[in-house]
Amino acid sequence: MVTLISKPAEAARHVCLGWVLTRGDGFTLRLTGHDKPLTIVGETYEPGAALEASSFTRTTDLEPGHASVRGALDAEAITEEDILTGTWDGARVDVYRLDWLALSVIELIWSGRLARVEWQGERFEADLVSLKVDLDRLIGRQFLRQCDAVLGDARCGVDLENPAFEGLICDQQLTTCIETFANVENFRGFPHMPGNDFILAGPAAGTGE
């Protein structure tokens, strides 16, 4: 494990942090703790990041590293409502050490995502987790015996406005889909898929098979 301590005062006096926040919809915001806008490598970092980040922890294995940040954002693009409604949850965060005198990037010191954002008064606190967390993200479908659709969604197709289905719940089982909802054509599971017992079973004794 390697821990990088973000303390610009330990370096030259003209070093500051730059924060690049990218939401899931592609909107990108660049902020800096400097008191003036900085245009570096063709990108402008706006002042307004009064952020305190004591440490960024990186790991050498597949476990995601963590960091925490707190402070105030004086940026019109991020509002208290945005934070409370989760608009920035999961946003990518890249933290750079910038040289505001030479207008250059010294190094990338952290890449991760906003894992938790809370608003407290006029300040916020956030937990950051490194990009390794994406390795735990499920991609595609899982092959399960039960249905993986949500009752009433587009994949399910059941009309929940039908009075016959009022108050009913679905346990994602094939028999329920057939007997309760008459919706077997939209069943999204694999009820006849062999299980581990079938795969591991050997030939029956005395059968020669």
Task: Give the percentage of residues in beta strands.
Answer: 25-35%
Which radius of gyration do the C-alpha atoms yield?
26 Å
Total number of helices: 3
In the CATH classification, which architecture of the largest domain applies? Answer: Beta Barrel
User: Quick one: how many beta strands?
Assistant: 11
The H/E string reads: EEEEEEEEHEEEHH
Low-confidence stretches: 1-11, 61-65
Strand order of the largest sheet: 4-5-3-2-9-10-11-8-6
Key descriptive features of the protein:
11 strands, two-stranded antiparallel ribbon, 2 domains, 3 helices, elongated, Thrombin, subunit H, single chain, mainly beta, 209 residues
Describe this structure in words.
The protein has three helices and eleven strands; from the N terminus they run ββββββββαβββαα. The chain has 209 residues and is mostly beta strands. The protein folds into two domains: 2-133, Beta Barrel (Thrombin, subunit H), CATH 2.40.10; 142-198, no CATH class. It has a nine-stranded mixed β-sheet. Strands 1-7 form a two-stranded antiparallel ribbon. Residues 1-11 and 61-65 have low confidence and may be disordered.
